[in-house]
Each structure stands twice: as structure tokens, then as C-alpha cells.
Design brief:
Blueprint lengths: L2 H17 L8 E2 L1 H8 L3 H13 L3 E4 L3 E4 L4 H25 L2 H6 L11 H18 L3 H21 L8 H18 L3 H24 L6
Antiparallel strand pairs: 1-3, 2-3
Helix pairs in contact: 1-3, 2-3, 4-6, 4-7, 4-9, 6-7, 7-9, 8-9
Amino acid sequence: MAEHLIRHRIFQDLRDEIISCELPPGAEIRENELAQHFGVSKSPIRDALQKLEFEGLVEISPRRGHRVAPISVSDAEDILEMRTILEAAAVRKVAIVATDKQLQSLDDFRTANTRDMREFSAYNRRFHHLLCEMSGNERLSAAMGRVMENYDRLCSVSLSARTQHTQPMEAALADHVRIIEALQERNGTSAARLSGRHIGRSRKQVMRELESRPIVG
């Protein structure tokens, strides 16, 4: 395998493990162990960790070494606030600039076809990221991608006890349908209001779980 592909695979694998909390918040990261695990030198490991630090998923300290970035209640508040701001801006613009064909394609997200929380998380991420892509603003889309990664990590930490519960998924899906209908009517104001309500529901669930346990990390 070409070296650049190996480096990308290592980065992607580590990011997936952090987002899913297989590498939990605050966990120490040892370069030697990772190099042995992937069968590579330390160079691609360090490259991956630097990229993950840029994305806010890893902390690098000369004294303490590397660790998965912790999550606090304050972090959660910041992530949810950013998501609210970005998505409201996105859907308002989508209602104006999206083509009829693009808006019609949102019908694919009216059903999720899964009861698994991890699969639903991937579906949810695709839906919200697509809304930002349809806005035509590449910087907004990139920022939303980073926010959704951190949001997924919040869900992995805070909702793990309810992995098999379908009620949060059903409520989220119903919210998605309402947002889709507002956008297909090109009502950006309504879509932004519905998006804010949708994220507010998620906020209550996430914060209730986080506040019931010690700050992570």
C-alpha cells in the first residue's frame, strides 16, 4: 500500500475510534503501542496525531504526552451552540439557493431504516452535513463536519446507556421530516426554527446524561 494511503488509513482509524469512544475521552495515547499495532514507524503515527489535534480530538503536551481530548459539560454546551448557529444559517440559505431536484432528494432521509444507535448516528450525520453542503458554502460545510464529529462523540459518551432505545431516534426522524417539508416549501425561517427545536431536544438529552456523571476526562 502506498505510504500516503497508509497515513490516511491510520488517521481515519484513530479518528473513528475517538468519535465512537473506543478510545475514551482522557485516554493516554502511546506512540510506541500505536506504531506496533499498525506495523509502522512513529512518523505516520505522529502525523495522524497532529491532524487529530488540529480537529480538537487529541491533546498534545510536551510534559504529559498525547491523550484523547476530554469532554466537559462546558465543551458540550459550546458544541451544541455551534451546531445551532451553523445549521440555522445553512437551512436559511438552502431554502433560497437549492435546486428543486436537490430539495426533492431530501426525501431519501424521511426514513432511517435502522434501530441501531451507531448506524442512526451515521445517517444523522449525513443528513445534517448534506444540508450544509446544499447551502453552497464550503467553509460552513467544513465547519459543520468538525462540529458533527464532536457531537457524535458527545452522543457516544452520553447516550451509551440507551443504545437500544428507539424513542430518541423516532423523535429525531420526525424532526427531520418537518425540516425537509419546510425546505421543500422554501420556508427558510420555519426550517431554521425547526432545526433549533430539533437541536434543543438533543441538548436536553445530552446534558441530562452528562450532568448525571463526573466530567469526562
